[in-house]
Amino acid sequence: MKPDELTARFAELTTAHVADACVRAKVPVRCVGLKAALPGRLAGRVLPAQHVGSVDIFLEAFGQAEPGDVLVADNGGRLDEACVGDLVVLEAKTAGLAGLVVWGLHRDTADIRAIGLPVYSLGSLPTGPLRLDPLPADALTTATVGEWAVSNEDVVLADDDGIIFVPAAQVEELFALAESIRDTERRQSALIAAGTSLREQVGFDEYLAARAANPELTFRAHLRAKSGAIEE
């Protein structure tokens, strides 16, 4: 999917919709609760880079970037240093990137907000790195964020709930499922506003009676039969 189409499709969805679509499609739900330096949304192909103490790895990654990519900076989740600052973010913007996802901390928050490029991280800290470690051979091909290893075969999506990684090859399928889930939820919301409770919509009393007869029945299985979308 082209960057503009990816952004446009995701603009009408949330990471929650996509996470539920992953459950339905039996795709691993690769979520991480990062926060944005500036509220906003982000969608793009992963551009991985493992940080070992110097920003040169990011500059090297930018030289390989395609428009709309998202730098995924792996700093091992460290909370004792910031690995991304305003100059890196400004360079990313100049290189045509859509934003940055940092498994670690950023700094220069005010300047980053002024630049306006989305940056998601674990938070901020004034100090930069005070060390320089050996560079792994795969520093520009793989990044780890939380428990997830990602590459340029993945897409990252981000909003106020955090981030989710999905396989680039399955974006179309997952977006279609997510749009279906979104539409179901909107119908349910409209019905609640009009006076039909969610319990009525999903036949909750029917579910309780069925569960009494069959204790192995789950609410999720009941929802699937009812085409509900509140859990997946």
From TrEMBL:
<keyword id="KW-0808">Transferase</keyword>
<dbReference type="InterPro" id="IPR036704">
    <property type="entry name" value="RraA/RraA-like_sf"/>
</dbReference>
<dbReference type="InterPro" id="IPR005493">
    <property type="entry name" value="RraA/RraA-like"/>
</dbReference>
<comment type="subunit">
    <text>Homotrimer.</text>
</comment>
<dbReference type="GO" id="GO:0008168">
    <property type="term" value="F:methyltransferase activity"/>
</dbReference>
<dbReference type="Pfam" id="PF03737">
    <property type="entry name" value="RraA-like"/>
</dbReference>
<dbReference type="GO" id="GO:0032259">
    <property type="term" value="P:methylation"/>
</dbReference>
<comment type="similarity">
    <text>Belongs to the class II aldolase/RraA-like family.</text>
</comment>
<comment type="function">
    <text>Catalyzes the aldol cleavage of 4-hydroxy-4-methyl-2-oxoglutarate (HMG) into 2 molecules of pyruvate. Also contains a secondary oxaloacetate (OAA) decarboxylase activity due to the common pyruvate enolate transition state formed following C-C bond cleavage in the retro-aldol and decarboxylation reactions.</text>
</comment>
<keyword id="KW-0489">Methyltransferase</keyword>
<protein>
    <recommendedName>
        <fullName>Putative 4-hydroxy-4-methyl-2-oxoglutarate aldolase</fullName>
        <ecNumber>4.1.1.112</ecNumber>
        <ecNumber>4.1.3.17</ecNumber>
    </recommendedName>
</protein>
